[in-house]
Amino acid sequence: MNDDTIRLVTIGRVLRRRWRLLTVLAVVGALVGYGASVLFPPRYTATASVLLPGQWEDRELLTQAEIATSSAVVDRAAASLGRRGDGGELRDRVGAKATDGNIIKISGTAGSPERAQRLADRVAREFVAFAARIAGGGADPEAVTGPEDLRRKVAETNRRITELADAADPGRTVESVQARTALEKLRTSLEEAMKKLDQADPATNTAGMVVMGPAARPDGAAPPTRTQLVVGGALLSFLLGVIGHLAAARVNRRPRTEPEIAAALGSPLLGTVDVLDERPARRPGQAGPRDRVRRFLGLDTRWDAPAPQRFGDEAGRRVRYRRVCARLRDRLPGPRRLLVVVPDGDDVARRAAEQLVAEAGSASSEGSPGSGPLLLRVVRVPVSQPMVPDRDTASGALVVSSAGTWTAEELAGVAEACADSGHEVVGVVVAGTVRARTARSAGRPPKDTALALAVRGQATGGSA
């Protein structure tokens, strides 16, 4: 799988063979999310709106939003709410932004809906009061009295224009009509200029700020809520578990094909054999709590192993074993005593080796034509520290391994251990798993059928 593109079938295999482990990871992630919600209690956010009448530029609105969250406003809000010290604690829980329509939205965040509503309303009122105070008491006296003097002069000018219009001879001469028209245009121009002056007066706009009602009490907590943290933690742990499986399989460098396994051991391939797919038997040393947990989570079997084929009857499987025995007899001219070396922990290879020993003994006892005695003895070798018994009466070693279980370095270590003990590796047998045909399990083929198929000509020819 390390060279293949990750497909949906691979993800489905992870979900099917590691669903217990993924479920445990999701539960752990949900517990972590719940713990985070306990450490960080839920927050509620309320929003109050302040209307700024008149015409404002965008940068002026941004300035007003900054003033709403300034220390001058927040400190006064903290004092009115009975907070000790300055408003440094509230400053991180108050926000303001300018929206369309000259509206400043002031938000307050607290641990309960009531306190959030009270905080937003208080900051909005303090902002309006602070802006009015700046407009009324903090302005320059000359700047305040200047527009009033100008309005008085404009009023006097309007009265003078009215007097001049009345004094002119109305409608009798062309000059009088032109004079009255010019005076009316002047009056209109002065009125428009005063309207623009009133609209552009910042003191008038600031003093006219209005809080648009109390802030609405929030119905739910601000994100992330406790539910979001729990669901997010479970989903994140689940995805990390799936991604971890895919990443581990992507970097897996274990040989999976028969030629790769034979090349790692440095010996010819004698054939492939099949065993029935079943859970590995519990060994005496695997009764501890750690092993029980591994079996419960499904960690005792590899998830990325190829799915067992859905065919394989007893006669067909025995033919493969007899072909391997026939090839061994052809390769060993002298005494036919071999050690069947099985990597410790490879349950599929162990069961295949035991079946191979049984088939070799059966063929020798029946005295098939051209078949001499073939004595096989199974030896388990740990791959971490491989050790093979010294050579006594055995004339070589036969290595049996399953595909995709061991790395090339581990298989090479087993071959070196055989060479150190004086055993020549005469061949390699690769074991796989198949599923028995349940529909025909009651009718087991007779033994004569298996013997009729296992003739010498078929054993030495063709691929096993």
TrEMBL record:
<dbReference type="InterPro" id="IPR050445">
    <property type="entry name" value="Bact_polysacc_biosynth/exp"/>
</dbReference>
<dbReference type="GO" id="GO:0005886">
    <property type="term" value="C:plasma membrane"/>
</dbReference>
<keyword id="KW-0472">Membrane</keyword>
<keyword id="KW-1003">Cell membrane</keyword>
<dbReference type="InterPro" id="IPR003856">
    <property type="entry name" value="LPS_length_determ_N"/>
</dbReference>
<dbReference type="Pfam" id="PF02706">
    <property type="entry name" value="Wzz"/>
</dbReference>
<comment type="similarity">
    <text>Belongs to the CpsC/CapA family.</text>
</comment>
<feature type="transmembrane region" description="Helical">
    <location>
        <begin position="21"/>
        <end position="40"/>
    </location>
</feature>
<protein>
    <submittedName>
        <fullName>Membrane-bound polysaccharide biosynthesis protein</fullName>
    </submittedName>
</protein>
<keyword id="KW-1133">Transmembrane helix</keyword>
<keyword id="KW-0812">Transmembrane</keyword>
<feature type="domain" description="Polysaccharide chain length determinant N-terminal">
    <location>
        <begin position="4"/>
        <end position="65"/>
    </location>
</feature>
